[in-house]
Task: structure prediction
Amino acid sequence: MSTPQDINVRQKPAVAATGGATSTVLATKRLTKNFGGLTAVDSVDFSVEEGEVRCLIGPNGAGKSTLLELITGQLSPSGGDIYFDGTDLTDMDTHNRIDTGISVKFQSPHVYENLSVEENLQVPLQRTDRDTAQVLAETLDRIALADKRGEPASDLSHGEKQRLEIGMAVTLDPTLMLLDEPVAGMSVDETADIASLIRSLHDDGMTFLVVEHDMDFVRQISDRVTVLNQGEIFREGPIEEIEADEDVRRIYLGENA
Result:
């Protein structure tokens, strides 16, 4: 893992990897995470381009959630580096990573059940100097919860809570949104609503990295797909190529080659 050095030295590889003259907004270089004798993420070189929706798929235990937690700072790497938009994130704490322009939504909803929908959206806005009234109005409309702005979050359905948490992340106006299985446990209609919301945000210029198991959902939103297997990048490409790959079907989709 990288060790603290002079800031000018640290910035040079970061700018070379992301930001500046490159369209790459997120990059990992030989990123590794060991848990005792288990290597969950194994020397991963991975990048996301500005303005794309990248989906990360793979069998259970492939290292998808671990990779996401390394990017967000919830886990510290055993080796390697993480760069975002010209900044070296490797040794940066989670809260400071958010301030660089990254928002994250994990699989289970983390809303404040005793607060109203509007009050939930106000919580992340305390970190910013954005126009609260304008952001609230725009976000409530975007996540289709304007008619429930005064209701407690505890009264929302599962799908509505997921939309609310995505809305909370959106209020920070991030460059990159990280989503961990955003449609887990949802109905077909709720899944379609989340897909529509992501594509709408993408059309406005937001970049996404989405960890997901639901292949129908991946088909609806993805520009490119990365397949992770045993902690390593196994395949990358458009969804059509990934689904046509016999080895991917064997290790992930459970089909015989």
